[in-house]
Amino acid sequence: MVLIDNSTSGNAMRKPVTPFAVASLTAAACFAASALAADDAAVRKDLFTVITLNGMPCVEVVSVATRGDNDHIATCKDGNRYHVFLNPQGRVVVEKQ
């Protein structure tokens, strides 16, 4: 488990980072990277991580179609396809297509 310190003085309690937080941070990184290259290897890897952390089966993301800002369709090597996006509340959503 990863611990983070949210204080400026370093004296506050450390809080554990949940798997959802890791998935959210990973998704944010992949969405930022997608502006540079929609089908880049790093984006495929980040989307794979988000998909698997959400409990969905995926062997490897082999292609990505960017539909808009923070909105992607990921195709996995095993044939599964997922819509990965941020909902209006800012949460990462992974929907099987």
Summarize the structure.
This protein has 97 residues and is an alpha+beta fold. 30% of the residues lie in helices and 30% in strands. It has one domain (16-96).
Protein described:
The protein is 30% helix and 30% strand. It is an alpha+beta fold and 97 residues long. The chain has one domain. The strands form two sheets. A four-stranded antiparallel beta sheet has the order 3-4-5-6. A hairpin with a 5-residue loop joins β5 (81-86) and β6 (92-96). The longest helix is centred in the first third of the chain and has 16 residues, at 19-34.
Keywords, separated by commas or semicolons:
single chain; 97 residues; alpha+beta; 6 strands
Mean pLDDT: 78
Which word captures the global form?
Answer: globular
Largest sheet, order of strands side by side?
3-4-5-6
Q: How many separate domains make up the residues?
A: 1
What structural class do the secondary elements suggest?
A: alpha+beta
Biggest sheet overview: 4 strands, antiparallel
User: What's the helical proportion of residues?
Assistant: 25-40%
The low-pLDDT segments are 1-6
The tally of strands reads 6
Provide the fold topology:
Elements: E1 3-4, E2 15-16, H1 19-34, H2 41-53, E3 61-68, E4 71-76, E5 81-86, E6 92-96
Antiparallel strand pairs: 1-2, 3-4, 4-5, 5-6
Helix pairs in contact: 1-2
